[in-house]
Write a structure and sequence with these properties.
- The chain contains three helices and three strands, in the order βαβαβα.
- It has about 90 residues and is α/β, with parallel strands linked by helices.
- Strands 1-2-3 form a three-stranded parallel beta sheet, sandwiched between helices.
- It is globular, with a radius of gyration of 12 Å.
- It starts with a strand and ends with a helix.
Length: about 90
């Protein structure tokens, strides 16, 4: 069974480095960013490394309320990846 990781700030700096490391270690990744350009970068990285995961756009500074609003999206994406893995 694959492990799942959530990475805050996955489009740049340390967050992006962690995203790449976890993808290489075969994790399913959910990486947050605050911009659509950041989401594109995350999704391109996932694709380039033949990984599994998704980018989510939002601002974690607003606390757990944001996380709860992502729950449905994250659960749906994980289910989609688990049912239809990327080849």
């Amino acid at each position: 069974m694959k492990k799942i990781a959530f990475i805050s700030g996955g489009s740049r700096g340390i967050g992006h480095a962690i995203l790449k490391k976890l993808l290489k270690e075969n994790y399913i990744t959910i990486a947050s960013t605050t911009t659509s350009n950041g989401a594109d970068k995350i999704n391109n990285t996932i694709s380039d490394l033949n990984g599994e995961g998704v980018a989510v756009i939002g601002d974690l500074l607003h606390g757990l309320k944001i996380i709860h609003s992502w729950e449905k999206i994250i659960i749906e994406k994980i289910w989609e990846i688990a049912r239809y893995p990327c080849s």
